Amino acid sequence: DAFRSSLIALLTSAGYSCQGYALATDFIAEAATLAPGSLLLDLRIPQMTGLDLLESHAALLERFAVVVISGHGDIERAVRSIKAGALDFIEQPFASDDLLTLVKAAHHALTRRTTDGADRRDATTKVASLSPREAEVLRLLVADAPNKIVARTLELSVRMVKMHRANMLAKLGARSIAKAIHLAMLAEIVPWLLPPDRRYEKTVITRLLDEAVGHP
């Protein structure tokens, strides 16, 4: 209790809002109501250990960046905690500045994870708004297929391909094909598998001529 109180005092003085729990079960009972944040987790808490919590409640801990506190002789378990999803660990005794550095790093990691997750969800929502044909065009573009190859593969005219591509870009809110492909990758869209002879429409000579006149 005294150690936990001292940690809360240290983190509060550094500007963090903190909540302490004596048992893992106490944390589990309230975890769903807590805002995303960093979790300092002692490996040697009674009843359910910190490692038990990591290994049995991974889904519950997705909104938290976990830093494990390990005692002397706990290195093997600390390594297991990293494999179970902890961001880092710190061994006792430790300096206050070292702990604050880890907490700051955990905060930044959680922010990146939250931002990346939001970007993926946004991309998935946008891609889901595409018509089946527009989704096929996107998959072919991810496979680096030019318009003529897209048209041949889907048995469409180049004009229709361009129309579907324009509609696709509008729905995705993308100003370029590169942005559309980026959204497709975030949404984990599987590229269209093209046979080797259909991947490129231009010969090497044509590509060199295009580059020479500034039209790659």
List keywords for this structure.
three-stranded parallel beta sheet, 216 residues, 10 helices, 3 strands, single chain, mainly alpha
Topology overview:
Layout: H1 2-13, H2 24-31, E1 37-42, H3 50-56, E2 64-70, H4 75-83, E3 88-91, H5 96-128, H6 132-142, H7 147-154, H8 158-172, H9 177-186, H10 204-212
Parallel strand pairs: 1-2, 2-3
Classify the helix fraction into a percent range. 55-70%
Largest sheet: 3 strands, parallel
The percent range for strand residues is: 5-15%
Radius of gyration: 26 Å
Number of strands: 3
Low-confidence stretches: 199-209
N-to-C series of helices and strands:
HHEHEHEHHHHHH
- Helix tally equals 10
Mean pLDDT: 85
The SS-based structural class is mainly alpha
Query: What form results from the Cα inertia axes?
Result: elongated
Descriptive account of the structure:
It is a single chain. Helices cover 56% and strands 8% of the residues. The protein contains ten helices and three strands, in the order H-H-E-H-E-H-E-H-H-H-H-H-H. The protein has a three-stranded parallel beta sheet with strand order 1-2-3, sandwiched between helices. Helix 6 packs across helix 8, helix 6 crosses helix 9 (177-186) and helix 7 (147-154) packs across helix 8. The longest helix is centred in the middle third of the chain and has 33 residues, at 96-128. It starts with a helix and ends with a helix.
